[in-house]
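Postdoc handover notes: sequence design on the structure in folder B. Input tokens:
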């Protein structure tokens, strides 16, 4: 639900969500279900009816629930094959990413604009919503697109994975990350960042970072770093 919710009122569901509750979850009138609108907290609802024409819930109560990471980690993902981006969105949402920006880089293979871009963004946002639902998050990270690397967000501590000799090692930067409020991680495409990309990122305040001795696939990097940050915060 991406709409305001209020206890003591009825909520009419979209047809597809009514179908999901009726045919997949096998719920009936009187059954309880948890609903969230991506703005924090959970609403306990009772099924009023799940007819095809008018599926509806009664919003019984609200609980202030917070399952978010105490650090906001923003992912700047270089545009690559769409199935790889979808993997990043799904896994990084489950692991607590605060936002995503998919960006064109010099070696990016994916080009989108106009109606095609709008359709793809809707699909990507839907994947983030589904991953938030599956993982019990009550906040949904927003997914953005930008055509130029220089317009990417650079919030808080900014790092890009890049195996250059002068790059900082994870072990050297992890404590600073654990204490930061915002972290931005820039992940390159399949062929890695170009020298021009690295210059652009350096100008924007990104420092190069290595994460272990092996080179990860583009869809592996963000989830791996998120998991490491979460583990360090929880330890």
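Designed sequence:
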């Amino acid at each position: 639900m991406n709409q305001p919710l209020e206890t003591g009122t009825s909520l009419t569901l979209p047809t597809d969500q009514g179908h999901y509750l009726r045919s997949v979850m096998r719920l009936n009138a009187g059954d309880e279900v948890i609903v969230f609108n991506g703005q924090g907290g959970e609403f306990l609802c009772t099924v009023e009816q799940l007819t095809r024409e008018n599926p509806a819930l009664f919003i019984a109560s609200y609980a202030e629930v917070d399952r978010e990471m105490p650090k906001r980690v923003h992912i700047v993902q270089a545009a690559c094959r769409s199935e790889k981006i979808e993997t990043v969105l799904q896994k990084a949402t489950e692991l607590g990413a605060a936002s995503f920006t998919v960006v064109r880089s010099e070696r990016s293979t994916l080009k989108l604009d106009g109606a095609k871009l709008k359709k793809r963004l809707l699909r990507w946002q839907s994947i983030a919503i589904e991953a938030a639902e599956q993982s019990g998050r009550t906040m949904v990270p927003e997914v953005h697109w930008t055509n130029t690397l220089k317009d990417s967000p650079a919030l808080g501590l900014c790092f890009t994975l890049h195996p250059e000799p002068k790059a900082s090692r994870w072990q050297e930067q992890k404590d600073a990350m654990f204490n930061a409020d915002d972290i931005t991680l820039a992940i390159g495409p399949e062929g890695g960042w170009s020298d021009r990309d690295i210059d652009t990122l350096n100008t924007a305040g990104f420092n190069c970072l290595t994460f272990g001795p092996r080179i990860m696939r583009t869809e592996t990097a963000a989830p791996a770093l998120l998991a490491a940050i979460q583990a360090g915060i929880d330890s």
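Context for whoever picks this up: The chain has six helices and eleven strands. Don't rerun without checking with the PI first.
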